[in-house]
Design brief:
alpha/beta, 6-stranded mixed β-sheet, 4-stranded mixed β-sheet, 16 helices, 11% strand, disordered C terminus, hydrolase, 3-hydroxyisobutyryl-CoA hydrolase, mitochondrial isoform X4
């Protein structure tokens, strides 16, 4: 499909894709978040030996707002320096999601504020992601339920990530005309083989124990035992990193859910490593076409539905990020995010978005 396209056709397709799909998704999120109050969006509590962060927007799948980021970051830094705080736990309220991503309404707000909000939101979000990655205290993310986009950013860079049978992981940004940010350019190319490239370009969803098998989670625990796990962690007396790891490993070892099942992509890893090892999107598509297997053809269908521009940006992002530090990747992604926002604002204005959302 893309091989036969000229540059003008490719740009036209990307613009039409962005204009209609992005706008509809953003309008949906705006309707969902219209009446949300800022107070109580995140709970920051000192319990036992730990600082506990609870993302508290269960009706909106704990979507991350700028207000939440501005509360979490300074408290995280305080706990990091507090000699009586030995670990930090982050979790989501409700049973559906840890965090489904960043609250996308900031994009519509940015179009009215001439990028100021978009600049602030992404910069502050990435600063928080970096702070988590460099945190000097053990950081335990209980990623129970939907974990996507911004939710990945506040979990995957921490030292410990605990998945459950309800965990649903994905980086679906190429499907909405963006790219897998929040440090995706750092952790995705460091997964086994070319798995991260596959997940980034196709938006493939991993569920349950497969999130652990992929290397995104460090432990797997039954969702019904998460409360007990948290209580055992909080009850530790001046714990070391090894003490915390031992508790997590104990619960992980005891879990029997899907223990005997193979990784969902295990039989396809050779194809993934072969097809997604190319340096261009066009070559990846050609590899999938030449492979011709049902799995390859299915991925070809998926990729053909994605934003062509996003695919190219994402592949380059991961290739560049594979040899950069997390901080360097986040700097790169911030620049990319601002370039994408400029284009989005132009499209919103063309679509009369401001009049629809006011």
């Amino acid at each position: 499909m893309f091989l036969a396209m000229g540059r003008q056709d490719l740009c036209g397709l990307a613009s039409r894709f962005s204009l209609f799909k992005r706008t509809s998704i953003i309008l949906q999120h705006l309707r969902m978040s219209k009446h949300t109050e800022a107070a109580g969006e995140v709970l920051l509590e000192r319990k036992g030996c730990a600082g506990v962060i609870t993302l508290n927007r269960p009706k909106l799948l704990n979507a991350l707002t700028q207000n939440m980021i501005r509360q979490i970051y300074p408290q995280l830094k305080k706990w990091e320096q507090d000699p009586d705080t030995f670990l930090i736990i982050i979790k989501g309220a409700g049973e559906k999601a840890f965090c489904a991503g960043g609250d996308i309404k900031v994009i519509s707000e940015a179009s009215k504020a001439k990028q100021r909000l978009a600049q602030d939101f992404f910069r502050e979000e990435y600063i928080l992601n970096n702070a988590i990655g460099s945190c000097q205290k053990p950081y335990v993310a209980l990623i129970d339920g939907i974990t996507m986009g911004g939710g990945v950013g506040v979990s995957v860079h921490g030292q410990f990530r605990v998945a459950t049978e309800r965990t649903l992981f994905a980086m679906p940004e190429t499907g909405i005309g963006l790219f897998p940010d929040v440090g995706g350019g750092y952790f995705l190319p460091r997964l086994q083989g070319k798995l991260g490239y596959f997940l980034a370009l196709t938006g493939f969803r991993l569920k349950g124990r497969d999130v652990y098998r992929a290397g995104i989670a460090t432990h797997f625990v039954d969702s019904g035992k998460l409360h007990m796990l948290e209580e055992d962690l909080l009850a530790l007396n001046s714990p070391s990193e090894e003490n915390i790891a031992h508790v997590l490993e104990t619960y992980h070892t005891e879990s029997k859910i899907d223990r005997d099942k193979s990784f969902i992509l295990v039989e396809h890893m050779d194809k993934i490593n072969s097809c997604f090892s190319a340096n261009t999107v066009e070559q990846i598509i050609q590899n999938l076409q030449q492979d011709g297997s049902p799995f390859a053809l299915e991925q070809l269908k998926v990729i053909n539905k994605m934003s062509p521009t996003s695919l190219k940006i994402t592949l380059r992002q991961l290739m560049e990020g594979s040899s950069k530090t997390l901080q360097e990747v986040l700097t790169m992604e911030y620049r990319l995010s601002q370039a994408c926002m400029i284009e989005s604002c132009k499209l919103f204005a063309q679509a009369g978005f401001e009049s629809q959302s006011s």
